[in-house]
Amino acid sequence: MTTTAPEVSGSRPPSVPARRVRRGGGVMSSTGLYVATGVAAFFFLVPFYLLIRNALSTDPEITGENWKFFPGHIQWSNITEPFDDPTVDFGQSMVNSLVVGILHTVGTLFVCSLAGYGLARIPYRHADKVFYAVLVTLMVPAAVTFVPSFVLVSSLGWVDSYRGLVVPGLFSGFTCFLFRQYFLGFPKELEEAARVDGLGHWGAYWRVVVPNSLNFFAAIATITFINGWNSFLWPLVIGQDPGAWTVQVALSSYMTNQTVNYHLIFMATAISILPLLFVFLFLQRWLVQGIAQTGIKG
């Protein structure tokens, strides 16, 4: 016969003191965050303020000693002055930059995505060596390749043409690296299902991978278009005829050894960044998502 020890009435197990969770920050942390964000936004917007202010001013107001926050008489006529300048066809240069940017973006996405997909998915014993060779190209300055590239483009008769401006820069080692990193993390189950349906590597890429990777493609397209729009050295080398100038080359022509038309430079610059602002404001969220999906960890 077994007996159990009688329970002591009212006895309770010793309670473990609850840990106090200290939430850092609070009001002071939020205030500091807002202040830091406000200061960063201020320094970020100052160049844009100076750009707009000088673009709507006269040259004496830009270079004068008596600085004003905004010009006393806004020169709205400065807006049309870049397009009325007989020495530079600014409108044609904007069109050239737009065409080059679009063609460069579409071509780079197609070439680099295929290269990245092949390095990530197609079994090949020398795939790692090819990938390392692509990475080595990132260490070579672009200016080093200008002379042999110009000789090749000139021999093909592509000087002062869209082909000469676009084709030599279609492949980017960095963009290929980003696509490879993204495709390494792409779900293999989707591609295996495509293989069951009889699709090969090209069919899986075009019908399965691309439709399910539009967010990443949009992010890379945004970065590529901005880089293509801002390119200067190669269009300067290839665009020998003023009719083939891009907008960056046209802007550089406003500053010569004899004269510098300040308000014209500022106004033309303000107009030239409008397409970039449009692309960035409406597609900026793709930039963050695209970088997050590459697999790169800081």
What do these coordinates show?
The protein contains 15 helices and no strands. It has 298 residues and is an all-alpha fold. Helix 9 crosses helix 10. The longest helix has 32 residues.
What is the topology?
Elements: H1 26-55, H2 59-63, H3 81-84, H4 90-121, H5 127-137, H6 146-155, H7 162-166, H8 173-184, H9 188-196, H10 201-209, H11 214-230, H12 233-238, H13 247-252, H14 262-272, H15 274-292
Key attributes of the depicted protein:
298 residues, mainly alpha, 62% helix, disordered N terminus
Give a brief rundown of this model:
This protein is 62% helix and 0% strand.
Query: What gross morphology would you assign?
Result: globular
- Main beta-sheet strand count, sense and barrel state: none
Q: In percent terms, what proportion of residues is strand?
A: under 5%
Number of strands: 0
The stretches of 5 or more residues where confidence is low (pLDDT under 50) are 1-12
Distance between the termini: 69 Å
Number of DSSP helical runs: 15
Oligomer: single chain
Mean pLDDT: 84
The class by helix and strand makeup works out as mainly alpha
User: Cα-atom Rg, whole angstroms?
Assistant: 29 Å
State the helicity in percent bands: 55-70%
Q: What's the order of the H and E elements? A: HHHHHHHHHHHHHHH
